[in-house]
Specification:
The chain has 404 residues and is an alpha/beta fold. The chain folds into 2 domains: 133 residues, Alpha-Beta Complex (Aspartate Aminotransferase, domain 1), CATH 3.90.1150; 235 residues, Aspartate Aminotransferase, domain 2 (3-Layer(aba) Sandwich). The strands form 3 sheets. Strands 3-9-8-7-6-4-5 form a 7-stranded mixed beta sheet, with helices on both faces. Helix 2 runs antiparallel to helix 11, helix 4 packs parallel to helix 5 and helix 12 packs parallel to helix 14. Bound molecules: pyridoxal-5'-phosphate (PLP). Pyridoxal-5'-phosphate binds next to helix 4.
């Protein structure tokens, strides 16, 4: 029986939703009706899609679909258990070996998502005597992992290496392990973390260095090897996290590092121990995606060509795409800063009505007053699609007084 009358037990949740409605930041989920492609249908409307993390068009690559179907036919739809009980299939091991070889590290462990990779790793390698020194804009999964670890959390100002060093110096005589952690690419602004400088600092103070490369995987470095490769810091970063959910096109997260780090995570990382492993189709898809990264580097070139073109055009028209009171993007992540949350959401809805899917992002995902439309370019957008999107963005922004 469906519930009819509101129950007082949950009235505080309704109050929060009403508050969001009053601010204009309450949202409804947009529903994709076909494939995650540059032009697709949400809620029955055809749009140019500037909102997905499908950087390289792998989410619907024919060869990936083929291997997913083949793996399903050969091995079934589910793994049947967590990895440590009975759910480690040959194909899971092959994926971990594939990623370790690609990243040129000793070993790799795959988690169900990038979120669980971060949260599971940070929470298991630190304890309450330890310290985590974290960039203020690091991803929520790092923050949650830090809280679960019960370690002392010290936050440094965004990309402020000197501030990070101040904290490390203050902690130098304290017992306990220290972990310096940064995103390789920051997901809301698209700027690149100072992985090189932080890794040298970590080394100087004997701290563990960890990087979350969710948005750098498949985007930065040779063939998309990530930020450690981009900065040529091989061997200087103890823990490299990547995602299989964005450029790789499927689902999952991974941790790369030494054999003992990975073996430790096999024994202690709670999402690994207590949540079922990927279906074989996902593992097969990811293996083939790494083959494509190696064989088709032109995808990454197209991604960067589209990025340079689109961002230069936005600037030329007069949009604020960051760099004034917010960080400047250095990657395909393209914020279009509006400021007010309600206005941002209204802009996003108007763009959608005119055939452009560009998500509005407001507090608490970004700070109050820094609401933005966030767009992501992919290798698969054509110049004609980008031009049409640019024309729409300019016209709607002028109509709404966002652009003069
Ligand atoms: C998306 C993202 C994650 C989470 O990855 P999923 O595979 O989607 O769970 C972690 N860190 C950062 C910086 C991200 O942008």
């Amino acid at each position: 029986m469906t519930q009819t009358a509101p129950r007082p037990q949950l009235a505080h949740l309704t109050a929060v939703l009403n508050d969001l409605r009053a601010k204009g930041t309450h949202f409804r989920l947009r529903v994709l009706e076909d494939q995650q492609a540059p032009v697709c249908h949400y809620d029955g409307k055809q749009v140019i899609n500037l909102a997905s993390n499908n950087y390289l068009g792998l989410a619907n690559h024919p060869r990936l679909i083929e291997v997913a179907v083949a793996a399903t036919e050969a091995f079934g739809v589910g793994s049947g258990a967590v990895r440590t009980i009975a759910g480690t299939m040959r194909i899971h091991m092959e994926l971990e070996e594939k990623i370790a070889a690609f990243k040129n590290v000793e070993a790799c462990v795959v988690f169900q998502s990038g979120f669980t990779a971060n949260a599971g790793t940070v929470s298991s390698i630190l304890g309450k005597e330890d310290y985590i020194i974290s960039d203020e804009l690091n991803h929520a999964s790092i923050i949650d992992g830090a809280r679960l670890s019960r370690a002392n959390i010290k936050v440094f100002r965004h990309k402020d290496v000197a501030h990070c060093e101040e904290i490390l110096a203050e902690l130098a005589n304290k017992p306990g392990h220290k972990l310096v952690i940064t995103d390789g690419v920051f997901s809301m602004d698209g700027d690149i973390g100072p992985v090189d400088k932080l890794a040298l600092l970590a080394e100087k103070y004997g701290a563990i260095m960890m990087v979350d490369d969710a948005h750098a995987s498949g985007v930065l470095g040779r063939n998309g090897r990530g930020s450690v490769d981009h900065f040529k810091m091989h061997g200087k970063v103890d823990v490299q996290v990547g995602t299989l959910s964005k450029a790789i096109g499927a689902l999952g997260g991974y941790v790369c590092g030494s054999k003992d780090l990975i073996d430790y995570l096999y024994h202690r990382a709670r999402p690994f121990l207590f949540s079922t492993s990927h279906p074989p189709s996902v593992a097969a898809t990811c293996i083939e995606a790494f083959n494509i990264l190696e064989q088709e580097p032109e995808r990454i070139e197209r991604l960067w060509t589209n990025t340079r073109y689109f961002q230069a055009e936005l600037k030329r028209v007069g949009f604020n795409i960051g760099g004034i009171n917010t960080p400047a993007t250095e990657t395909p992540i393209t914020p279009l800063i509006v400021g007010d949350g309600g206005k941002t959401m209204e802009f996003s809805r108007a763009l959608f009505d005119e055939g452009v899917m560009a998500t509005g992002i407001a507090f608490p995902t970004v700070p109050e007053g820094k609401s933005r439309i966030r767009m992501i370019l992919t290798s698969e957008h054509t110049k004609a699609q980008l031009d049409q999107a640019l024309e729409t963005l300019e016209r709607v922004a002028k109509r709404m007084g966002i652009l003069q």
